[in-house]
Specification:
The protein is mainly alpha-helical. The chain contains six helices and no strands. The chain starts with 6 loop residues before the first helix and ends with a helix. Keywords: Cell cycle, Cell division, Centromere, Chromosome, Coiled coil, Kinetochore, Mitosis.
Length: about 210
């Protein structure tokens, strides 16, 4: 059997030519064996009609096996020649022939250097894409951080608005005056807390 892979022929036929030839060989061989068994059985039936015949069934079997071996040797030689002819002239695609699905390779043929340059360009585009994806992720993270900062600023502005409203209720319209007002009230509150703590300590000592 041929050892050439014949991959292009397999692409066209859907099977390798070697597989086809192997199946043909097995089919012929099986037919030869079956034929010899039929011939042997016919000979044995004929012998039954000759009671005086001194040929035993075992001798018939040996003769059948010898004839089968002779036939198989000649068959292998003939099949080898037939296989060579079929693989070279029938089950083969000429080297100058392209299958329809491969016509695109003829239209857009590339040299080895051009193909390598194309591969390098693809690699460069992939790197640029990864860099853009990474930059996009960084921008999205920064945007989320800006949103969080904006939310905090809005809370501070709301706090200032509330503070301004409180100051207006107390007749203070200037922010400087507002902070001064808060500072004074804070100091007064601290003094009150201090006074409460002192009285609490005195009461504790009195009861002790």
């Amino acid at each position: 059997m041929s050892v050439s892979p014949m991959a292009y022929e397999a692409q066209f036929f859907g099977f390798t030519p070697q597989t086809c030839m192997l199946r043909i060989y097995i089919a012929f061989q099986d037919y030869l064996f079956e034929m010899m068994l039929v011939v042997e059985s016919v000979i044995l039936r004929k012998l039954d009609t000759f009671p005086d015949c001194k040929i035993s069934p075992s001798q018939i079997r040996k003769s059948t096996e010898k004839f089968l071996l002779f036939m198989k040797e000649h068959f292998d030689k003939l099949f080898s020649k037939m296989e060579e002819v079929l693989l070279q002239l029938v089950l083969t695609i000429p080297k100058n022939v392209l299958l329809p699905e491969d016509k695109v390779h003829e239209q857009y043929s590339y040299s080895k250097e051009q193909f390598q340059a194309l591969q390098d360009e693809i690699h460069q585009v992939q790197q640029q894409y990864r860099a853009e994806v990474s930059a996009g992720q960084a921008l999205r993270a920064e945007l989320e951080e800006q949103k969080a900062v904006q939310a905090e600023l809005e809370k501070i502005l709301q706090w200032f608005d509330g503070l301004e409203n409180i100051c207006r209720e107390h007749g203070i319209s200037n922010f400087r005056e507002s902070f001064a007002f808060l500072t004074q009230n804070s100091k007064k509150l601290q003094d009150v807390l201090k006074d409460v703590e002192e009285k609490s300590n005195k009461m504790k000592k009195h009861y002790q």
